[in-house]
Every structure is written in C-alpha cells, then in structure tokens.
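[Meeting: bench + compute handoff]

Bench side (C.D.) handed over the final construct sequence. Compute side (W.E.) agreed to return the predicted structure before the next meeting so the bench team could plan truncations. Sequence as handed over:
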Amino acid sequence: MPEEAAPRRRRAPAMSLEDRREALVQATIPLLLVHGANVTTNQIAKAADVAEGTVFRAFKDKQELLGCALKSAMEPDTEIGLIDRIPATDPIEQRLIGGVRAVTGYLDRMWSLMSALRDTGFDPHDGEGHKQERKGPPEGMLQVMGRIAGLFEPDAERLRVEPELAARLLMGIVFTNRMQQQGFGEGVAEPEQLVELFLHGTIRNGGDK
C-alpha cells in the first residue's frame, strides 16, 4: 500500500504593513522599560520573532519606532476599561478607590517608561512628527479624567462642586501622592486612605480617634 504523502505545511499569510508595525511596537514597549532608548533593533526583532531588516522595512529608523511605542504605551485603554467596569451602584468610596487604583497604575507605567527613556537620552520631541505637539495634559489623561468625573456622577447632588472639578482635584492629589523622591517625601497613601482623606478631610470629627 503506497505511503501517504505528508500534508504540505501551509505558510501563514503575510502581515500587512500596519499589522507588522503594531506587532513591532508591542514587542518594543516592555524592552523600553528595561533598556530605555538603548534597546537595539536586534533585541526588538528577536522579541517580535522577525529578521532585523523587517524593523527597517516597517519604520524609517529606530527613533520613529521608539516614538510610536511611546505613543502606544500612553494609551489608557486598559485603565479606562477598569474604570468603566466599576458598578455605578457601588458606594462612592468604593467607586473612587477603584478609579484611583486604575489611575495609579497608569501613572506608574508612564513615569517608569519616561524615566527609562530620559535616563538613556531619548527626546520624544526629536523628529518631524513632533513639531506640532499639543499643549496641556496628554489626550489619554484627559480621557481618564473624564471617566473619573463619571464616578462622581451618581452622587452629583451630594457634591459641593461639579463632578469635573471634583475629579480634577482628586487627580491632583493622586499625582502628588505618586511623586516620590522629588521633594515630596518617601511615603505614599494607599488608595483607600487617599479617598478617605479626599472625601472626609484630614481632621477627625467629634470623638473619632
């Protein structure tokens, strides 16, 4: 009985240029946290499981790839998803604790990444694509701020200020709380403590001890 021919291995379809760029960007982000701007295109190619030449077919140079990776890392999709899943029926304290946790994770990721890049000499404003940068907070942070304001909305009638202002004030405290080793001290408040202080102040009421 003739031996059956082994089935031919079907080659995976080639990625589009857009998909290839996205795959390289996602492979680059975790390497930036470790190596900063000193990451090599060879390391990126190995992480993405492609030949090094593929990097330069997708991007004109490493600077462009690093800029795209930084922009992608600053997208707050994960944090917005976490905030959006907080039930509006939860008590306001619980809603805000969940929001603060999400924002804290976003800030820690951003600041770790920017610190690694800055320490290795990367300037995100280099290159033609950054000459018309918008002023003010990053778009991603504005999106997060809007979601935090939404956490205040179910209790809007109880607030002394509009939800948008309450969110901005809370975020100001969150930012300062994470600024360690920059003249703001070493200790940080946990989300539960921070929300308690924000909603009820730092002075104990009546006989509270």
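W.E. noted at the follow-up: Confidence is low (pLDDT under 50) at residues 128-132. C.D. will use this when planning the next construct.
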